């Protein structure tokens, strides 16, 4: 009897120790804002928007220590629309769904993930969301230049490799299988350096768009620098689907003010190669101006306000809503003002 009790106690202790080496975390962001937008001939509209300072989401992530410096992990993340209580209509775990092996060699990650060129855009002063962000051009309507490419932000069926910690040097290689879906087959990479006040990175990606059409290409370089009083955010992003091409130059800043931060940003989208009236011709350029303030109520909760304006030329129809409303005409302005609350859990 004593031997049996000893064995049971030993097994229980082993199980408890093994469980202590694993963890599963529930996480998320709840973000909602009241918003007024105006889009040229489409007129003005009042809205309750979700995810204007950070995309509203919830997810599960976990890691298990396998011993010998090896770990296994997973990450599942789904968008939440706080204005109407829905999730992503197309993919429930649409933001990310990956499984990983990690160690001194780096990380091998498989599943639905952000592309290397997308990772290079995330250090935006507005977090690539909201009416003031450069995300209007990076991921908004027409960002794939009208091609079938689905890989501007994320890709399905990916296998990726991330470099281990190498004294500030970081890198990411990724391949995505098309699996018979035109515009899904992708290959790309990212290499950068982050140490002290500097973060600089270059990324390149190519997506096959069919046997009779050119590949969709995206390459960019981001450079951020932390001064003593502010952080500079810059991005030069180029997308090509011959003969169409767009070159986006963005510059912005985050300036600590009181218990929060003032944010300002500017982008010029220079388009070329398309036919007249297509929205991608030499005459179809756009600019973005954004200004906002985030007031931190605590480490996890903040209030914010943002104003954004997009000026279009020619047939360009870029909007602070990322997808322009049907009634908006080419060359018209778009603007938006929002006030919101963000809570992280």
Q: Can you walk me through this structure?
A:
- The structure is a single chain.
- The protein is mostly beta strands.
- It has helices at residues 2-20, 116-119, 135-138; strands spanning 22-39, 44-50, 57-67, 70-81, 86-87, 96-103, 106-114, 154-162, 169-176, 186-195, 198-207, 216-226, 231-241, 244-257, 260-272, 286-296, 301-312, 334-344.
- Strands 1-3-4-6-7-8-9-10-11-12-13-14-15-16-17-18 form a 16-stranded antiparallel beta barrel.
- A hairpin with a 4-residue loop joins strand 4 (70-81) and strand 5.
Helices and strands in order:
Elements: H1 2-20, E1 22-39, E2 44-50, E3 57-67, E4 70-81, E5 86-87, E6 96-103, E7 106-114, H2 116-119, H3 135-138, E8 154-162, E9 169-176, E10 186-195, E11 198-207, E12 216-226, E13 231-241, E14 244-257, E15 260-272, E16 286-296, E17 301-312, E18 334-344
Antiparallel strand pairs: 1-2, 1-3, 1-18, 3-4, 4-5, 4-6, 6-7, 7-8, 8-9, 9-10, 10-11, 11-12, 12-13, 13-14, 14-15, 15-16, 16-17, 17-18
């Amino acid at each position: 009897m004593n031997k049996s009790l000893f064995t049971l106690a030993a097994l229980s202790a082993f199980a408890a120790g093994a469980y202590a080496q694993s963890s599963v975390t529930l996480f998320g962001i709840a973000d909602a804002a009241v918003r007024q937008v105006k889009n040229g001939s489409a007129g003005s509209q009042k809205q309750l928007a979700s995810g204007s300072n950070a995309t509203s989401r919830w997810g599960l992530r976990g890691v298990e220590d396998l011993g010998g410096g090896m770990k296994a992990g997973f990450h599942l993340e789904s968008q939440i629309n706080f204005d109407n209580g829905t999730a992503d209509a197309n993919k429930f775990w649409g933001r990310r769904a990956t499984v990983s092996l990690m160690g001194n060699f780096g990380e091998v990650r498989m599943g639905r993930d952000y592309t290397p060129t997308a990772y290079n855009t995330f250090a935006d002063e507005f977090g690539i969301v909201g009416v003031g962000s450069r995300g209007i051009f990076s991921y908004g309507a027409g960002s794939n230049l009208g091609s079938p490419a689905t890989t501007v932000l994320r890709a399905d069926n990916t296998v990726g490799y991330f470099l281990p910690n190498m004294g500030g040097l970081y890198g990411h290689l990724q391949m995505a299988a098309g699996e018979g879906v035109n515009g899904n087959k992708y290959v790309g990479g990212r290499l950068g350096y982050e140490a002290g006040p500097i973060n600089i990175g270059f990324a390149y990606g190519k997506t096959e768009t069919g046997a009779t059409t050119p590949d969709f290409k995206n390459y960019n370089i981001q450079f951020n620098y932390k001064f003593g009083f502010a952080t500079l955010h810059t991005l030069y992003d180029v997308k090509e689907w011959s003969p169409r091409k767009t070159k986006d130059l963005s510059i912005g800043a985050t300036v600590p003010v009181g218990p929060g931060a003032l944010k300002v940003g500017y982008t010029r989208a220079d388009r070329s190669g398309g036919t007249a009236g297509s929205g991608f011709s030499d005459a179809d350029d756009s600019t973005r101006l954004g200004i906002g303030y985030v007031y931190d109520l605590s480490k996890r909760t903040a209030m914010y306000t943002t104003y954004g304006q997009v000026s279009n030329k020619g047939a360009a129809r870029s909007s602070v809503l990322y997808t322009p409303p049907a009634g908006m005409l080419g060359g018209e302005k778009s603007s938006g003002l929002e006030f919101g609350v963000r809570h992280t859990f």
